[in-house]
Every structure is written in structure tokens, then in C-alpha cells.
Amino acid sequence: MPEIHPFPCYCVKPEWAVEVVTPPYDAFSPAERAAFVEDHPGNYLNVIRSLDEFTGHRTLSLEKLLEQNAENLRELLIADKFSFCEEPCLYLYRLISGEHEQTGLVCEISVDAYAAGQSVKVHEQTRREKEDQLLAYMERVGAASSPVCCTYRHQAAIDAEVRDLIQSREPLLDFQSVDGVRHTVWRMADAERIQRMTSLFAALPVSYLTDGHHRAAVAWRYAQQERLVRNERYTGEEPFNFLLVAFFPDNQLRILPYNRCVKGLNGLSKAEFLTRLEAHFTVTEFSPRPTEGYLPDRPRRFACLLGDNWYDLLLRSEVGIPDDPVQRLDVSLLQRFILEPVLGIREPRTDPRIGYISGASGEKGLENACRQGFAAAFACYGMSVQELIAVAEAGQIMPPKSTWFDPKARSGLFVRMRNGG
Predict the structure, then answer these.
(1) Against a cut of 0.90, is the pTM above it?
(2) What pLDDT does 420 receive?
């Protein structure tokens, strides 16, 4: 496990938290993000805008966009919506969404520990184009505000330390964001307590990156670049040498599915498509609507929305399930038995006919996709954290858009300047 480090940072002030802290970035389409920032000029989303929000006559160069992002950050700081804590601290961060609750430790780790790949294991392949855009952002804006998220096998001693701090300290922040998630933050400044937590995490053998693979990769690239500029005249303690991380225990994380939708049926009629599915699935039309809804209630079961009709797709028992930790995932089975052989989608990373829908949107997300022109939509059953760990332990890579972590750590709670502050 990489050594955890306390860090100085800007923290949003309690009276500004609801206005400033972002909704979950990926839950919005680019058009929805653009509309949101127009209505919420004081939200931190204005600092992390991306080029895909600007289309048609509103196109913008990357240089101009980054200039605007940097200026929006300066305005937030000048407006005194953040307080600066110069003392290096750790933070506890609790999120409550409905009946689900998770509490993590926010800290920094060395980018070298991440890059070594032994104590922080990954499961996702990054795209160079996206890395390059994020690297340009770091060069121009110079701020880390969205902690990457990692998990670890939960430990009773860490849980006890977390409970003790929560029970003995008033929170630094406690508010409900516009999407109904309650966020509570405690600051850990006591040197003795920081040392205990550092020792407890040091005893963990490994952690697993769950969300933020591109941000982590860019933090490493940025550090390498800054070190080169300094001709190796650096101490290793400069802010650019670290990665902002939120560690959540594995028994508290919730993974929702990432569902799929497709444009066209590869030249098949609706009847022909359903017949092709019967080679590997028991296909049953939902009629009437089940009381528990259409979404699958267990692995190896899928729901398909075809036009206005919902179908239950149950993988036949005689179909062999591979032992491979990636190939046995439901998203892989969907690709193997439907998307590639029936619909001709061989490369889901790049094929323009496939779209992805957050499991947080439920049935409505699939229905909206079909109303917007997709021919069919497929709901998967969410994978477990242990399945994710098995993939990472095997050193393998998941298919694109395999997991949706809910609730997500938000941007705008902590701002860590990477060239000081």
C-alpha cells in the first residue's frame, strides 16, 4: 500500500458548499453540463469545463477554454468561497445517498507509488487523447480538485479509527447537494491521529483504483514533465509529486451497471433480431410490467428495450461461463453473445453505433435513449467490488464503461494547487 500523506489545500466554506460543489460530472451529457453552468455560474463545473460542451457556433479553442477555466478558479478564490488550510491534514469524507452510506479517507499518495503499479492496481485502459487534454488542463489551471478513488479490503482497525474521529469531532462541512446526496467532511489535523492512520494504511498490502484512471495517469505525466523542467533539482516534496486520492473500503462501495444502447439492428427486423437472441438466451416479453420493474435482478440476466417493448433475456444454463475474470463479466457476455455476433459491433471503444447509459438513470435512461433514436437498449446487472478486484489482481483490463460508482466523490470540496498552495 502506498504511504498516505496529509496535505494543505483550499476547502470550500460551509456557506458556499451547496452552490460551489459540483454534481457528478459524468452523469451529465456535454449539452446538459453546458446548460447547468449557464444557470449556476458559481459552481465549480465552470472550472473544469471541456471542449465537448462547445458545439456549432459556440466552438472554442482548447487554449481559450483553459484560459477561461483558470480565470473562473481565480474568481472563486478571490470571492472568498474557499478557506486555505496551510497545515497538512487528512480528511474523512462521507457520502449518503438514500440508504447507502460510504466514508473514505482523503489524502495524497506519491505519483511514483501509483506508477510502480504494485500497491495501486488498475483495471481500465486510458486514452492518450483524453490524457493530453487533461495534461493541458493541469499545465494551464494547475489545480487538482477531483480526487481519484481507490478501494481496499476493509479493516476493523481502520473502521474503528474512522468512527472515533467522527464521534469526537464536529464536521468541517455537512450539506446536501442538489441531487440529494449528503456530504460530510471532517478534518484530521492531530499529528498523533495522522500517524496512527498512516500506520494502519501502511499495513495494507494493496489498493485498487476504482475511478479516475485518466487523472492518475496525467498526474504521473505532469510530475515527470515538471521534474524534467527542473533538471532533477527537486526534493520530491513539491505538490506536483502527489496524487489526490479518496480511499473507500470495499464493503462500502456501490457499483451500478453501465448499460448499452445501439443505433440500428444491423439490418435485421425486430422479429429476426429476437430470433437470433434465442440461440443463447431464453427470451420473454414483459407483459404486463412486473411489480419489481424491468431491470435485471441477478447476474447473467439482461433486460432489452426494443422500441416500446421490454424483454427479459436469461442466458441459457448450457452456455459455458469462462473462468477468466474479464470474460465472465456480464458486460463481456453481452458483447460476446449479442453486440458482436448479432449487431456487428466488434470494437465497443470506437464503434459510433453504441452508446452508454449510467445505471443511476434506471429504466428511464434506457427509455430516453430509445426515444432519442436508438433502436435498442440493454440493461445489465451491476458487478460486485470483488469482481473488480479480481480483474485488477489478474492485471487485466475491463471493457469500456463497465462500472458506475454511485455516489461519486465531487469536485470543488478540496482544491490542491500543484505548483504551490
Answers:
(1) yes
(2) 60
Torsion of CA 113, 141, 80, 242, to 10 degrees: 10
CA 9 to chain centre: 22
Of 280, 252, 227, 258, the residue nearest 115 (C-alpha): 227
Share of the chain above pLDDT 70, in %: 100
**What pairing do the DSSP bridges indicate for beta strands 82-97 and 100-110?**
antiparallel
Q: Note whether 69 and 47 are within 8 A (CB).
A: yes
Residue 67 and residue 75 in contact, taking contact as beta carbons nearer than 8 Å: no
Give the tens place of pLDDT for each residue, 236-294.
899 999 999 999 999 999 999 999 999 999 999 999 999 999 999 999 999 888 989 99
C-beta separation of 243 from 109 below 8 A: yes
* Contact between 142 and 418 (Cβ < 8 Å): yes
Residue 142, sorted as left (phi over 0), alpha (psi -120 to 50) or beta, turns out to be left
395: exposed, middle or buried (C-beta count within 10 Å: 0-12, 13-18, 19+)? exposed
Distance CA 92, CA 116 (A): 26
Query: Rounded to whole angstroms, how far apart are CA atoms 58 and 212?
Result: 28
Q: How far apart are CA 410 and CA 62, in angstroms?
A: 24
What number of other Cβ atoms are within 10 A of residue 368's Cβ? 14
Domains located in the chain, CATH noted: 7-254+406-417 (no CATH), 255-405 (3.30.1760)
Residue among 411, 419, 407 nearest 82 (CA): 411
How many whole angstroms from its chain centre is CA 48?
Answer: 15
Q: Say if CB 145 and CB 412 are below 8 A apart.
A: yes
| Mean pLDDT estimate for the chain | 95
